[in-house]
Design a protein that fits this description.
A two-stranded antiparallel ribbon has the order 1-2. The protein has eleven helices and two strands. With 253 residues, the protein is mainly alpha-helical.
Length: 253
Amino acid sequence: TRKDREEGASAVVGEASTAQICRQTIAGISGNCCALYEGGVQDVGSVVNSVGRACDHPTWQVRQAASVFLGRLAGLHKFLLTPEQSTKVFRLFCALQGDPRREVSAAATEGVVGMLAVMSPSSVASLVEEYAEVANKSLRPKKRRRGGKLERLEEAADVAADRERRQRISVAVLCAAVHSAPYDVPPFVPVAIAALSRHSFESAAPLGVRDSVKKTLSTFKRTHIDNWSLHKTKFTEEQLDCLDDVVTCSYYA
């Protein structure tokens, strides 16, 4: 009956909500336990390796929980990690940012923003340069002219899937770099914005990619508008054009 179906749907929603709360709670408790554990660098490395395996789990809820756990570990207990372990955690976050489930990628993005916020500007600049190159190469091949007509280059399904995964990851890292400097404009921010703008209007890009770019640059505009006369001096004319192409506002005149 209709009543039975409604009750069944309500039960499923309730179970999903409860499961989500439990996953987040367990991840938080696990992160706090790491702070109290004195097993040394080797054992912390074992924890990172175990969570890394969970990042490849076929169930998205497990991948989300792993991402939340890594966020707690990297954000609250970063001093437990060696440079090598920090690099591994960052790479795990980057891989999770390419996850097709938004719940997983969103949790990973929060972790990346947190890690970038405590990195040196030179380290972030190197990462931005690396992922800007990946982002540029992940754009869909342009149309080519054949016999007087423009034809879109076709891709094999596996090639297209890999390109879109690299696009999601690189765009997410660049967005995180912009978010990591909410009230300032370090040299890497204009570079990231210029690379991101190319993905805002690509019709073939996944919808989540275009939305992420527009939301990131809109947030950047809002948090920097008060001192824009100073901030815009950090951009070249080309970089300013890239920003204006995505976010058009009279305040930027």
